[in-house]
Structures are given as C-alpha cells and as structure tokens.
Write a structure and sequence with these properties.
The structure is a homohexamer of 144-residue chains. By secondary structure, chain A is mainly α. The first copy, chain A, contains 7 helices and no strands.
Chain lengths: 144, 144, 144, 144, 144, 144
C-alpha cells in the first residue's frame, strides 16, 4: 500500500529532491515538520495527477519569487524544476515572467540564484539559440 | 515593423486579453499606465520566446495568488491561461499547487475566483476523469 | 480508528468551525481543497497536542492580520478563538498587539472585523473592567 | 503644553485628515486604537520636523501601494497628500513610480483609487501640460 | 510617575528583552527609533493589561513568521516568549501552527531560528513527553 | 534620437546609479533583465517628467522598506536618493515615516542600511540641527 508518506518520498525522488539537510537539521526539535512536508507538500499536493511536475514547479517558482526571503526553497525548486525537465532557458524565462508582478528587486534576486544553480551544473553561459546577448542592439527590432 | 506596443497588443489578442475596461477607465488620469502594461508586461515580457504562453501564465498565477488582493488580475490571468490552452483541471491543479507556499486562505480565495471563471464558461461541474469527488473515502488510497 | 480527517472534523467541531459555506461552494470544482483543509490544517496541525486551541488561534490571528486580504478567514478565526475560550477583551488585545509589526492599516481592518464578530454575539460595548474608554485623558497616567 | 495627542490632532488638521469615521466606529470596542493612531502615527511620527508633510506622504503612498489590501488608508493618504500640496499630476507620477517595485496589479489598483479621489475633487481630466494623451504615438520619442 | 518610556523599559526587563545592540548601534543616526520602540511597542502596546505577555508573544510570532525577512526580531521574540513562560514544546507548536497560513518555507526558516534559540539555552533535544520522534511510524495512528 | 535605453542610462547617470555589479553578473544568463531595468524602470518610469528624482526615490524607499528582503536595492535607492539631493536627515525621516505602515522590524532593518550608507559617506554622526540626541528626556516636550 502506498501511503501518503511513501508517495511523497517517491515524488521527491523523481524530482531529485532528496531529504535535504534542513530536514535532518530539525530532527531534534520538530521532526514532524519534515514529515508533514513530505506527506502534505509532496504526497498530498505535488504528487497529485492532473498537472505534470515541471509545470507544478512553475507555479511554485512564481509563488516563491513573490514571497521573497525564502532563498533556500527557491533555489531547491529551481533545481527540481530542471530535474523535472524544464530547460535552462525556460527557467530563465519563467523568472523573467514574474517581472510585472513581483517587481525587479525580487526578480534580480531570483535570477542570481538561478545563475548559481546553472553554474553549478556547468550550464553557463546559456546557449544562444534564442540568446539575448548584449550585442543585440536595444530597441532595434523587438523580437527578444 | 513590429514595435513593442504592437507586439504587446498581438500577444494580448492571442491570449484573448483584449484591452480591459480597467485600461479605458484610467484614460483620463494616466493613459500611460495602460500603454506601459501593453508595451512592457506583454510586449517585452510575455511575448518573449523561450517559454510558451500557457506556462508563462502558470508563473503569473503562482505570483498573483501569493500577492493577494489582486483579484481582478488573478481572474484575468485564469482566463488567459485557459485561452492559452491550459485545461480546466490543470488550472485547478495549479491553484492547489500553491497550497504549501501561499497557504490555505489565499488558495481558497483563488479557487473561488476559478470557480466563477469556469462557471461562466459553462464548464462546471468538472469532469470526473480524475475526479476528487467527495464520495472518495478520505485516506483510503492516497492516489488523488 | 481515528483518522486524520475525523480528527480534523472533531477539532473543527470543538472550535465551532463547522464545514463552512466556502467548503461546500467549491465542491464542484475542487472538493479536495476542503478535504485537505480538514485533514492537514486541522487534523495534522491544529489538533496536535502541546498547545491549547485558544493559544493556537493567537498565532493564526497574528499571521492572518499580517497577511492581509484574507478577511473571511480572519473573521472565522476570531470566531473560533472566542469559542476556544479567549475572552472578548483578550481578542481585542491580541489585535492591538499586532500594531508594531503589521502596522495600523492592517490592524484597523482587523479591529473592524472583530467589532462585527462581537456585535453579532451581542457583546458590545465591551465591559469596562479594564476599559480604555474615551473618557480617560490621553497621556495622563500611562496605565492602559 | 502641547502633548503628543494634541500634536497629532494638529497635524491631522493641517492635513485635512480629521478624525475619520473609522476611528469613531471602533469607539465601543477599542478606542485606544484611534488614540494611538493620533498619538503615535501622527504625533510621534508624521509631525516630526525634518521632512515636510507632502514628502512624508510620498513614503506612505509607496508603502501602502506595496502592502496591498489597505484601500481605505491608501485613499486617505492620497487625499492628505493633495491637501499637503502635492499636485494631481505629481500624485499620478508617484503611483507610476511604484511600478517596477510593487508591480502592475497593485499600481492599477492604486491608480483606480486616485481617479476616484481626483474625480470627487472635480480635477478630471488632468491638464495636458505634460499630458500623456492616448494620441501620442507609442515609442515615437520617449519623452513621456 | 510612571511614564510611557519607563513602562516600556520595565516590560522589556520583565521579558528579558534588554536594550539590544541594534538599539545602541543606531544611536548616532536615529536614536528616536529606539526610543519609540520602547515607548510605543512596549510601553503603549505590550505593557497593556488584558492579555498576558506570553500570549502576546504568540501573536507577534505569528506576525513575524508571516512577514518574513525579519530574523533578528523573530529570534528576539522567541527568546522573550520563553522568558515570559512559554515552554519550549509550546514554542515549537506555535511555529507549527503557522504552517497552513504562512506556508512551509517561512515555517522552516522560523523553526531553524527556534532550534538555535533552544540550543543556546541547552534545551536540545526536546523532551519526548509528547515527542514526535522519527521512530514513530508516519500515518500509523494520527495522534500527533 | 533619445531612445528608451539611452534615456534610462542618462537617468541612472544623473542618479549616480551606474550599471551595478548585479547587472554585469547576470550577463551570461539573462542580459535582458538588466536591459529591461534600464529601459523600463529608468527610461519609462523614473525619467518621466512630472515628479523630481528625489521625490520619486521617496516613493521607492517606502515601497522597498515595505517589501522587505531586498536590501541591495533598498541600499542602492538610499544612495540615489542622497545623490538626487535628499539630505541625510531627510533620508532618516523618510525611513521613520514608514513606521506606522511597515512596522518596526522592517524600519530597523532599513535604518541599519541607512547607517551603513551614511557612514561610508563620512556623514556620521548626523548634525544636531534638529538632533534627536539621547540626552533629550523622553516625553518631556514632544517636539522631536
């Protein structure tokens, strides 16, 4: 029988979001917090059918950028979004998409985290398939 | 030549997000606000290649649910998300996905808006293909 | 066997927080949302031992005042706080206590809701046991 | 002797922010809340020398737009900003200035309130001294 | 005569919240900020009768967890909550109680601070009187 | 012809807000983010006529203090506010003005940043023209 906890663990494993150090670090004060994260956030919510993991991560990324001040979690979800199949360029675009709603400060902060994530994966510089290189004259055409 | 304003209008048209009443209502005080929304939010950001419109709307929905207090815009983006191809069930799941991050009050508010949007489109009740009907015994299986 | 859902319902019943209209209103779009609210918010969190219900509501009230824009839930938790044994004067003081952290606008909004809640219960005007009546000269003594 | 309360009342009077209905409405539940607003928010903070009232209101407007969900207070501070000498066009520009930080949804909401405030004062449409009329071709020049 | 400042200092002393380094650090730029904190936040608000200090701290903790980004203050209020009589287990439960409203990221951040506070007081690991140890099988019973 | 990008750069230069390290640091992942900041935040918004730069910065400071968690940007705007002509004492007062709306924690954080900014400019301690020195007896007069 697949219980909620097992389902949550399985989803985390698919996402490459293994039990983080934060979970273990709180074991001697509130082990239930980690258990509830696995059971509820992943078992009850993330593992639900109806929307694939990569697109679920897009919602989460929009939420965490807007919340602010949750850099560890935002970084973790960038990692799982990539693990779920989002391409690096798509991650960058998702962060850009938050601009008119979360504002420039929050988006600059998020993009800085994204750069660290991509750098650690050896993915920099991003391919220029649809590159927005600095050599492109601002305002020339519009197709950026 | 496709300028930023025209590109923004074109993207809004694809999304079925025609110039809203809010835009016109502010014409006698700050017409630039609407112009900048078209040029920047849609022309410079939404119309960027690299991430399709439906997935961009997932980021925006995550952001707006978390912001709170922006019901007109949240409702409008639910509309454009559906117009961009997101299925009703997927919209519901996207809102559910915000639960561990934006909390239950914001998500209940968002789901209430979603219900109005789907109701107005004659899409209620949602199909039970992967229905989470109340007849399902809580906690029985877990696959929800 | 007491499952999470039953435990959540029981806690809601103790709090006089019976299944609200909001829960039923979403039954044809996302019945799981209500189920998760009962199972997680009440069964997994509120019903935990270690802190009594009234004091749990104080934490929630502080959170909801600060969040803003969640008036239905804030009002509901004021109701359950009173049902859990918090005295009317204590509710007022709890809202005042948020002032240096959530600011005056949020607190004025919360106090307006509290007045509606107390008025509907026939509890106005509040007893002057330790009343801060307008007849007290501002700044005279300080013991308020 | 000018005490804090009197100083706060005096500042409110200068701003045309007389004791609002909200203050009186809470008299039978928490009269201290209004007293503290007068004493602290106006007596201790707003009435401080070192920055004139109109510029203080600019800070407050930036804060309230960003907070969201505090429309009564945001509207009230738009009124007092105008009473303190801010010109209508300057108020509009102040709201526009929040765009890159608070985002479009919050700013659209604020501009809608500003329109109501200006309309009630018979100040619409705004003069076109440096008007951003819709007849100006987007992107033509840039001086907007 | 007990003035507001003295009353605030007295309340801070009861709470073990002596004038912090932050207060002194700002003395050469804005000494009034600290003065107002003592007079208003503690003298006018915290020292009010009608709700005991420990329960006031529960409201503040709910507010600060939700605000986010105010770790020094959140940690300080965890300290004063314990000083005011809240038991360590109760502090942990108060933080857990914020989960459905402030979300997992904010609560994980708060719990990490709480662990530092309890560790510095030599209170780890928490007693297992009603311990949620990892040895407890998830989902077995429900009474947690 | 002055385009949006050039106008934005010009405004940044006037403000002494030259292209920051953050802009360059993201060049290999999202150069468009910096470009949009220059074009939109400065070219389209900040450089608009109708409100002078220093007063625009007051709005931004109110917004950023309230947002929280955006210390690099808040510090940068304190710098540009001073460069635009705001006097050090006026900057301090602007931050104080946020107290009743953003609360003490956010304001203490902002004042700490302001102290660093003023210290680096050799402007501490602030002149006592309208000094709020600690030697002034609290509550004596009120004129602070």
């Amino acid at each position: 029988m697949t219980g909620r906890y097992e389902r949550g663990l399985a989803r985390q494993a698919e996402l490459g979001a293994t039990r983080t150090e934060a979970y273990d670090a709180l074991a001697d004060i509130a082990p239930d917090l980690s258990r509830l994260a696995v059971e509820f956030a992943y078992g009850d919510v993330h593992a639900r059918p109806g929307l694939d993991a990569a697109r679920r991560e897009l919602v989460v990324i929009g939420a965490l950028i807007t919340l602010g001040g949750v850099e560890p979690q935002l970084r973790a979800h960038m990692e799982t979004a990539l693990n779920a199949g989002l391409r690096p360029r798509e991650l960058v675009e998702a962060i850009m998409q938050a601009l008119p709603y979360a504002g420039f400060p929050r988006v600059f902060g998020a993009m800085t985290l994204a750069r660290q994530v991509l750098d650690a994966r050896g993915l920099l510089p991003l391919t220029t398939g649809n590159c927005r290189g600095r050599s492109v004259t601002p305002d020339a055409e519009g197709l950026r």
